[in-house]
Amino acid sequence: MTAARAVPPHSSRRRGRWIVAALLIVVVAAVAVLLATRATPPSYRLALASRATVDQTLASSGTVSPVDHADLDFAVAGTVATVSATVGQHVTAGQQLAGLDTGTLDATVAQARAQAAAAQNKLAQDETGQTGARRPAPGPARRGRRARPPRS
């Protein structure tokens, strides 16, 4: 026969204590999670509005860069004669900001017009020369044959 194993009386008490301790830890953890995640209502502070001077200084370091930046250039090269806007001034689209010295540009335009007029005169002379010139009559030499000496 097999003998029944005897359970010591103090081991069942130990097991009960461990179960109670584990349940206590689970309950404490659940309460901690609930307290940490619950939403706190916003707090408000009421005050009367009044007029006053506010002195506040802000000290900061960094790089300041513009929101919009445009590189300006002219359609032709030249010397800037007038500047109509100042640094930091608000400008609108289409507003003239600067002007070029037109002296050299005017001279270039006058030279180009003179060259164009000379070319038109040459064209007119060439056209007149072609209509007034006589063309040689087509003869045997023009057809690629040798001319024969006249008979006597």
* Percentage of residues assigned to helices: 25-40%
H/E series: HEEH
Task: State the total count of DSSP E strands.
Answer: 2
Mean pLDDT over the residues: 81
Structural category: mainly alpha
Task: Show unreliable segments.
Answer: none
Give me the Rg, rounded.
53 Å
Largest sheet: 2 strands, antiparallel
Short précis:
The protein has 152 residues and is mainly alpha-helical.
What does this structure look like?
With 152 residues, the chain is mostly helical. It has a domain at 102-127. The protein is 39% helix and 5% strand. The chain has helices at 9-37, 103-132, and strands at residues 80-83, 98-100. The chain has a two-stranded antiparallel ribbon with strand order 1-2. It is elongated and about 165 Å long. The mean pLDDT is 81.
What are the SSEs and their pairings?
Blueprint: H1 9-37, E1 80-83, E2 98-100, H2 103-132
Antiparallel strand pairs: 1-2
Annotation keywords:
single chain, 152 residues, mainly alpha, two-stranded antiparallel sheet, 2 helices, 39% helix, 5% strand
